[in-house]
Amino acid sequence: MNIQKAAFDLLMAEQTKTAIEPFTSSTEITTDDAYRIQLMQMKEKLKDAHVVGMKIGLTSKVMQTMFNVDTPDFGHILNTMVFENNGAVSVSRFIAPKVEFELAFILKEDLKGPNITPEQVIAATEAIVPAIEIIDSRIKDWQFKFQDTVADNGSSAGAVLGGKHSVPSLEKLADISVVAKKNGMVFDEGISSAVMGNPANAVAWLANMLAEYDIALKAGQFILAGAITAAVPFESGDVFEVDFGSYGIVKLSFTD
Predict the structure, then answer these.
(1) β-sheet with 185-191: strand ranges across
(2) Strand, helix or coil at 233?
(3) Please, which residues bridge with residue 165 across strands?
(4) Domains, the chain
(5) Does 66 have pLDDT greater than 80?
């Protein structure tokens, strides 16, 4: 597997808004290869940006079964990928985007595995916030396998964070309800336990997984813990308002 060429191809796909064929359709690629491709892209992007957060994907059993894996994946979020709550984003930035709704953890202490527990995640968290993640695939028609989306930065494309809220107990963290509206109409609902039983479990997984690449989660970063409801495509004119109950509302509009 040509790691450097694959990373370059994904960078060009993102820049030109032209999706590429999945790597797995023409070559052998391991999960480690895929993460090395992702990290090589980040190395290039960090010349003009910096990491402000991480995302965790494939946290539900349904999605893991779809990709024939038993593990989530991760991606990086740069400062250039963060948008304002109640703001508007142009759809022209993306290829075939969708939105997901999740909780974000804002860290007050570094977390580095191995052996990080959900309890340690809670202790290291300054606040939780409601969030919208924008996902996009630089792989053509979303027709990818697990290694393709890993290489493609976990299909990450953007994030919107709501207001900060104090960290609940581990038990309450698994019982946060979400009601999603599109253009004023409720279209989906969920509960935070959909994310690996508890979103803190996902963050602990991430800290331990990153340790394999000698990467730590840093104080001040935010972690998107995984989608609570299904991903949904959008187009110009769509407005999403997502209610996390006592943990706040996050809203985002899309324009041409």
Answers:
(1) 87-90, 249-255, 239-243, 177-182, 185-191
(2) strand
(3) 128
(4) 3-255 (3.90.850.10)
(5) no
